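Morning, I've got a small favour to ask if you have a moment. I've dropped the whole record in just underneath, so have a look.
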Amino acid sequence: MAGVCVGDPVKFMRKPFTVELGPGLLGSVFDGVQRPLKPHEAVPPRGVSFAPLDRLKKWTFRPTVQVGEHITGGDIFGRVQETPLVEHRLMLPHSLMGTVTWIAAPGEYTVEQRLIEVEFQGKCLSHGMITEWPMRKQRPSRDQLEPNTLLTTGFRVLDAFFPCAQGFACAMPGACGCGKSTITYNIARYSNVDVVVFVICGERSSDLSDFLYGIQYARTETAEPATSKICIVANSCNMQPAAVEGSIYTGAAIAEYYRDMGYRVALVADSTSRWAIALQDIASHLGEIPSDRGYPAYLKNELSKFYSRAGRVQCIGSPVREGTITVVGSVSAQGGDPTDPVFTATLELAHAFWALDTRLAQRRHYPSVNWTRSFTHCLVHLDSWLRGVDEDFISMREQALQLLRSEEELAETVAAVGKDALPDSTKEILAIARCVREFFLQQNIFNTYDKFCTLSKAAWMLRALLRYHDLAQHALVRGHGNWAAVHRATDQAWTAVTHVKYQDFDLTTSDDTHFKQVMDDLEEAFVTLD
């Protein structure tokens, strides 16, 4: 411990380690024990301690209750505009209840000033903006609800093929250099959540400083600063293992706090492997018997405690509200080893599994998500949501995945006999499967039209591509020449289909006339073959 010397007095506070919750969390950067960091700092100064929340800044308070009203724990008694994107809803602590005897008038107050006074059984207790909560204790909720809304990431391979519902946990394993940090960074900027809690564990100090510097200039889709909805808990690799190990729980406590306000929250951890290494170091210093590869025997239990924070709940208190936490955890297995204990434990806990592939990353295929090793258990929960985007979405997804599986099965045959020896129908399948990979799954983060893709646009892209496939197969069956002749005769329609990708607008709010015209021209191109 920095700044502690032999002979210094030590006082037992008789309470667990707590985190401070209140206005000012969003846009701030903390270490694992909630010490505030400056944007250019990756490690806090030794021997120096600061309050997590600014004691001097004043916030504009608007009360929502009146004197004489009965109030209980979890009820919202006031509101503060924390950032341009998020309104902070002040909740009464769960330990308080009673009748409001005094409420502060609308105005500007600091986080330490009292705002409300409640009387219960002759006792009067006051409360301000700050709430303390044990970092390892899970916040209660009224009821658990079934997740039914998609977590949009902007990546077609994730949203269309391996979707994750808000309120579930998803894992993203991969070796170093596969793009885990870039994917989680884009999820924090473009996902359809209200608040993002970003937990960074064990990164190099230089990389962490670059990330903290760059996030200041990031923008959301509405051109607002991304920091307006992001809280960062950051730990570099040279920080104390106890701080790195506690960062996961600090981030979870902050995420549950905003969930109880009724917000959709994403809890992003990058990465759980480095957090597990900190857990291993602590267990080693305590003299605990190591398990597989030196990790403690309770590794899976600790991981399950983290991933269990995900969920869609009905919050305690009034007004009635719902909140969700979606956990996104990246796993940095050394060399992408599938037998790594963190990898195998996470595999059993995740509802969606986005496996990153080193070979795809080396071929500059972004995002490098392997479509044969990835999976999702969320389709049954998202069926009605996906059908609201496109009635045939589920069937189109299955057809596209089947094309990719067929391409993989034919790879050895093509290598042995060559592509020219294959039947025309098989050549067409290989051509469409290649287009699914390069046209649909691959994206370019540096282009405005492709760095983020709505699900409605992805559905139109997939529909146009698969319709061409069906019409081409029918043309080959009817004997309209070989695959090269059919493709040459419909080249103009094929070009229009592949250029759907370059349309830069959201179909949920824009006219889809252009896409319908592409489909009509496609049908007309194959009619002329007859």
User: Anything to note?
Assistant: The first strand starts at residue 18 and ends at 21. The chain has a mean pLDDT of 89. The CA atoms of residues 175 and 335 lie 5 Å apart.
